[in-house]
C-alpha cells in the first residue's frame, strides 16, 4: 500500500487566496483525520471523519476552514481566505475503526505570505 | 481537557545507551495510547499502540509501558543507534470522545555516534 497520500507537499500563497489541501487515505481505512502542526501549538486535531461523515470539527479554527470527504478515498481541507497565521504543516491521517493505529501522510507545508 | 506532557523536551545520549522517554496525561480514562516518531520535515510514524487493558507493548528494541492509574507511559529504547534520532510523540485517546487523540509536545532525541 502506498500509505496516506497528500498533495501538494508544499504550497506558497498570498494572503487572501484560497488554498485546497488534498488527502487520499489508506484503502480500507474508515476514519480520516486532519491535523495542523506548528512550533507554538504542536500537533492539533482540526477535524475527523468516520465513514465519510464529519464527527468532530471543534478543532477547526474558524469559518475560513472547511473540510469535505465526498467518498472513502478522498478528502479536502480548504482555507478561504488564507492568512499568514495559517502557515503550518497540515497532516492527514487514517485508521481502521476507532481502535486502530493512526497512519500519517507526509504533510503539506503551507506558507501564506 | 486532556493534557499530555512529555519530559524531557530534548535528550542527547551516546550510541549504545538504553534510554527512557516519559509521557504523562491528566485524564486516566483513556482508550489507548500511541507512540510515534517524527523525522525532520516528515510525517509521523506509528511505533506502538497500547490499549487501555494492556500494560505494555514491544517491538524490536522498543518497549512501551502504560500505567493508567498514575497517568504515565514510558517508551524504552534499548541499545540506541544514531538512526533513532528523531522526535518522539505520545498521543492518548480518551473515552467518550470518538477518535480524538491528544498529542504531547514531543521529546527530541539525538543519539551521538
Describe this structure in words.
The complex is a heterodimer of chains A (113) and B (113). Chain A is mainly β. Chain A starts with a strand and ends with a strand. Chain B has 113 residues and is an all-beta fold. In chain B, 0% of the residues lie in helices and 59% in strands. Chain B is built from no helices and 11 strands. At the A-B interface, strand 5, strand 9 and strand 10 of A face strand 4 and strand 5 of B.
DSSP strand content of chain A: over 45%
User: How does the major sheet of chain B shape up?
Assistant: 6 strands, mixed
Low-confidence stretches of chain B: none
Report the mean per-residue pLDDT of chain B as an integer: 92
For the biggest sheet of chain A, the summary is: 7 strands, mixed
Q: How many beta-strand segments of chain A?
A: 11
* SS-based class of chain B: mainly beta
What's the arrangement of secondary structure elements?
The complex is a heterodimer of chains A (113) and B (113).
Chain A: E1 5-7, E2 10-13, E3 19-24, E4 31-38, E5 42-50, E6 53-56, E7 65-71, E8 74-79, E9 88-95, E10 103-104, E11 108-112
Parallel strand pairs in A: 2-11
Antiparallel strand pairs in A: 1-3, 3-8, 4-5, 4-9, 5-6, 7-8, 9-10, 9-11
Chain B: E1 4-7, E2 10-14, E3 19-25, E4 30-38, E5 44-51, E6 56-59, E7 62-67, E8 72-77, E9 86-94, E10 101-103, E11 107-112
Parallel strand pairs in B: 2-11
Antiparallel strand pairs in B: 1-3, 3-8, 4-5, 4-9, 6-7, 7-8, 9-10, 9-11
Feature tags:
heterodimer; A: 113 residues; mainly beta; seven-stranded mixed beta sheet; four-stranded antiparallel beta sheet; globular; B: 113 residues; six-stranded mixed beta sheet; five-stranded antiparallel beta sheet; 0% helix
Concise summary:
The complex is a heterodimer of chains A (113) and B (113). Chain A is 0% helix and 55% strand. With 113 residues, chain A is an all-beta fold.
